[in-house]
Amino acid sequence: MSPEGQRGSPLKLIVAVALVAVIGLGAGYYFAYADTPSFQVSWAVRPLNIKFTATQASGSAQDSFTCNPSVSPVTLRVTSSQPDIIAVTVSPSSFPSCGSTPDNITVTASCTPTALANGSCPGDRYRAFVEVCGPTPYTCLKQMLTVNIAVQNK
What we know:
Blueprint: H1 3-34, E1 40-43, E2 48-53, E3 58-68, E4 74-80, E5 86-91, E6 94-95, E7 103-111, H2 113-118, E8 123-133, E9 145-152
Parallel strand pairs: 2-9
Antiparallel strand pairs: 1-3, 3-7, 4-6, 4-8, 5-7, 8-9
């Protein structure tokens, strides 16, 4: 084999391996996306706003949601953008089913005891996110609810 042919072989091998890797990743992404449920959640109020004073230490707001198509059972998962400062809960946190009839919830945000003690709770930069998951806890539906939280000094 000529020296030019030997030099081209590693390059061809690298290109072939890269092409196979890209195709494999693309196929993996396609099949993962294809397994994602097509359920949609609609929220009555979006985004939801909660405002309270640091002396009150907590505040709540109500919302409701529907699902299309119906899914059962569903659980709600809530996350806080600043869990060391603001704790957020949702009640109730599960429903036997979700369909065209609205399911009502109450979202409550509160200052953590540590944030109250050190005075770091006041602010308007806090966010929380509520997800509707079902029929398994690992299958969360599209359209998460954003909760804007503002805590005033007085």
